[in-house]
Amino acid sequence: MEKERVTAVYLIETPYTLERAAEVIAGEQSTGTFTAVPGETDQLKERHGARIEQIVELSPVSSPTLPGSKTPPGHDGLYRRGEVTISFPLHNFGPSIPNLMSAIAGNLFELQELSGLRLVDLELPEAFAARYPGPKFGIAGTRQLTGVYDRPIMGTIVKPSIGLPMADLQQMIMDVSAAGLDFIKDDELNANGSYAPLAQRVSAVMDAVNRAADATGKKIMYAFNITGDIDEMERGHELVVKAGGNCVMVSIMSVGLTGLAHLSKYSEVPIHGHRNQWGMMTRCPLLGFAFPAYQKLCRLAGADHLHVNGLDSKFYESNSSVVSSIRACLKPMYGGYGTMPVVSSAQWAGTAPATYEATGTVDVMHLAGGGILAHPGGAAAGFASMKQGWEAAVAGIPLAEYASRHPELQQAIAKYGKG
Amino acid sequence: MEKERVTAVYLIETPYTLERAAEVIAGEQSTGTFTAVPGETDQLKERHGARIEQIVELSPVSSPTLPGSKTPPGHDGLYRRGEVTISFPLHNFGPSIPNLMSAIAGNLFELQELSGLRLVDLELPEAFAARYPGPKFGIAGTRQLTGVYDRPIMGTIVKPSIGLPMADLQQMIMDVSAAGLDFIKDDELNANGSYAPLAQRVSAVMDAVNRAADATGKKIMYAFNITGDIDEMERGHELVVKAGGNCVMVSIMSVGLTGLAHLSKYSEVPIHGHRNQWGMMTRCPLLGFAFPAYQKLCRLAGADHLHVNGLDSKFYESNSSVVSSIRACLKPMYGGYGTMPVVSSAQWAGTAPATYEATGTVDVMHLAGGGILAHPGGAAAGFASMKQGWEAAVAGIPLAEYASRHPELQQAIAKYGKG
């Protein structure tokens, strides 16, 4: 019986007691109106009601994080914080990602009894695994396709992100393939714009990929950004597969979890999941979702690779948050669902040691734009420096020491290092 | 040339100057890396770069709204606020809602140079109208289907929201149909759960709807919640249409704008757009989206009805925000795209006058759960009181005065009125 419930953990803030706030959250799932209506029997509540499983009190604050909360009579001025665990009967909504979202998130963010609500964890019963088979390739499949087993899969992003003439794009692919890179992806800004329609890009890119593979003996993995409307994505995927492509990318928040799950039904190559727009769901610390909860839904919906930002990135996110995202992606789900975390943004050889130290894994994709392409010795030297950074990290050798015997790493430190 | 750009207006907060922050926002759209890369020519920037169109300074604050911003050297402790208008060349992404989102939202919420960013308005060129035909029924079509022309379309929500036995649901439909209501909808929590699969609900509901129509001569509009995975929604829509149903509902944030646009391609009945989960995109005043911007995308994607919350609701949202949402939905787009705002949450006859006074329109759906169903005189009296509330509002007669001649309104005031 217990496994037939979904469990959600919320970080909440409330001018009421935590108990009262938890009751409102649970109640919003069974009646949803401001006045009692006929037919709401105890039996119905027992069968369909959400249940408060646990309340852990945290330190209160003296002002509300979010606007619009109301205060109870005689309010002492404190806004209580706590972690509240609520469970929901699965039969209310079934193993359906979109309907799960209406239940566990729904109107909760708008309640007046709360001045903050954030979904921080989520446990889903096996029924979800029966409906959503998860990543088709995942970590193992991606390693097999790239032939890289003992280190991170390393790659870069097409730069400039938009506007690169096809001939220049082809040259870039030839160059990074010659440099030995495992992977290259379109920028999230570059999908199917009229200046460079996907069909044209697929043809030009695959021509370069194949020519480079003939020369090097290794076919680089190219993630084509096929983000688009539902039918457009299907056509995009078909274009890529027919041309011999080996990866597609989508902006998950653009196509929705339903769009991703739909793509996953017919996809024949790994799906590279980009999470742009994610900031609006997570940057306010008392609102939205934490990534360890959200990534489970992305994995269910079929993301083989999943962006997690990077350590010391150009974005606001703390390193500890990035580390917990990487760890979350690598935590097994249903005995499978292996999604490869994609570490990117302001990355270079020097971000490898801290990433490895904090996560203890080489099961990541490590992407660098400028950190490879703008290396003083060129892309091949940039790639070499990235490998050297990870070699040092895994061997536990200080970067500077390792660099004394590896000139590409030395050059990278000179260019990108801060100290 | 100007019409081939998309214009986005952002409310921003930054420890830098507004000019610098605007440059970073615009720049994030053309290079997206932390170090200059080859190939980024002036010509490319001119052709593909985002452009700062206007900066309007607002009052600064002394502490950052969102965490994780970095401060410039010699920071004076102020976080500047302003409205920044940025335009993007359409050819970068084409008239595609999902790729538009990656461009106008993308990684912007995560920039360290900002301590707040919210998309408050959006202007889209005609090319979007050519690709997305918008609502098929809208206000006019919904009025035609319900036969209600001179007042709001009034309805209720199935309550209890989940767990109601089929026989009780049928009885409820018979009752509210006999009471004369125009419209009834599933709760957003009730879609296709195993305790009440959609197929079973469609059959039971339509049986009751048709029996009631035989008795009253008026077929109530029933919005079936078909929220689900992409294929599941298609099957759900087919079930509803084949059974003679006249409306489907989806939780837009659950199915995504792409899911909504896909449904809109084949829908044969109005699409009732529910916006649950919206709070996580909007409750932090310096993050996410404002509804007047977001509703344009929902209309493009085909929502015939669109939830906007209600005045004096049980939620955190201010009345002025609700009013601006209603007005935004009613503002013409591309000479059409008429979406009917759906006013709900803690609604009753007494919320009509303020709603009418602030918006000057009867082109809304006005939904009440308890406000109709829990009326002391029953559902028919609840419905009568709602109509009376709007009659008083449109005639400019104070509610109490009008109630002196209308007992149902009098009873409603006695039960739900605060003063």
From TrEMBL, chains A, B:
Family matches, as Pfam families: RuBisCO_large (PF00016), RuBisCO_large_N (PF02788)
Annotated GO biological process: carbon fixation
Gene Ontology MF: a single term: magnesium ion binding
Transmembrane segments: none
SUPFAM superfamilies cross-referenced by the UniProt entry: RuBisCo, C-terminal domain, RuBisCO, large subunit, small (N-terminal) domain
Superkingdom of the source species: Bacteria
PROSITE patterns, alphabetized: RUBISCO_LARGE
UniProt cross-references to Gene3D superfamilies, sorted A to Z: Ribulose bisphosphate carboxylase, large subunit, C-terminal domain (3.20.20.110), RuBisCO large subunit, N-terminal domain (3.30.70.150)
Residue span(s) of domain Ribulose bisphosphate carboxylase large subunit ferrodoxin-like N-terminal: 6-128
Entry keyword set: Magnesium, Metal-binding
Residue span(s) of domain Ribulose bisphosphate carboxylase large subunit C-terminal: 138-415
Cofactor(s) listed: Mg(2+)
Annotated family: Belongs to the RuBisCO large chain family.
Protein's recorded name: Ribulose-bisphosphate carboxylase large chain
